[in-house]
Write a structure and sequence with these properties.
50% strand; alpha+beta; 22% helix; 3 helices; 2 domains; 10-stranded antiparallel β-barrel; globular; single chain; 195 residues; Lipocalin
Length: 195
């Protein structure tokens, strides 16, 4: 049974490879050049690479404007994957006395011309998605999107700002829309590189 399952998987992979390669042979030189440009990491991927490494973090979270912050600590390990095309960040810590783990996947879509971001964690079962852009110096990347929140009927707007400070530290700020529709700072995470 195991050999049959392995054979089925290999057959499906072979079909996928053949289907994806054959159309490339029929492409014009312009289409082939566009495909190569779309798949080649560039300057924006170098901006993401600044955030790679092992870090310890301190987090402050505000549940409402003017509320006292909840503080927590944890670790983050961000790794460039797939030839530097994506940044995968694995986070572990504690929030409100409960173990916390999360993962982010960031990248720059050469075709769409924008940064993309996906987040998931053990405090929910959904994915958070956002798109964004960076400052001219490449040190600040801002993502915007909407997310589903327990007990809130409509998706909530949010903004995440990643600021590269220097080789040893960076900061992430999260802003969310209040019930009145105004954006307020809900979280600030300060990362320090582990040497």
């Amino acid at each position: 049974m195991r050999k049959l399952t392995t054979l089925c998987i290999l057959t499906v992979l072979a079909v996928v490879v053949c289907v994806s390669v054959l159309p490339a042979q029929d492409m014009t030189p312009e289409q082939q050049a566009a495909m190569m440009k779309a798949m080649t990491p560039g300057e924006h991927h170098k901006h993401l690479a600044r955030f790679a490494g092992k870090f310890e973090y301190t987090s402050k979270m505000w549940m409402a404007p003017g509320a006292a912050p909840m503080e927590s600590q944890g670790t983050s390990e961000a790794t460039l994957i797939m030839g530097g095309r994506y940044l995968q960040d694995v986070v572990a810590g504690e929030y409100a006395g409960m173990p916390f783990e999360g993962m982010a996947l960031s990248g720059y879509d050469n075709v769409a011309g924008q940064y993309t971001y996906i987040w998931l964690d053990n405090f929910g079962t959904g994915f958070v998605r956002a798109t964004g852009s960076c400052s001219e110096d490449g040190k600040t990347i801002t993502f915007e999107g909407t997310m589903n929140t327990p007990g809130v009927p409509e998706p909530v707007k949010f903004k995440e700002v990643f600021r590269w400070v220097d080789d040893t530290s960076h900061v992430m700020e999260v802003y969310m829309s209040s019930p009145e529709g105004e954006m307020f700072k809900t979280m600030e995470i300060a990362y320090t590189r582990v040497k």
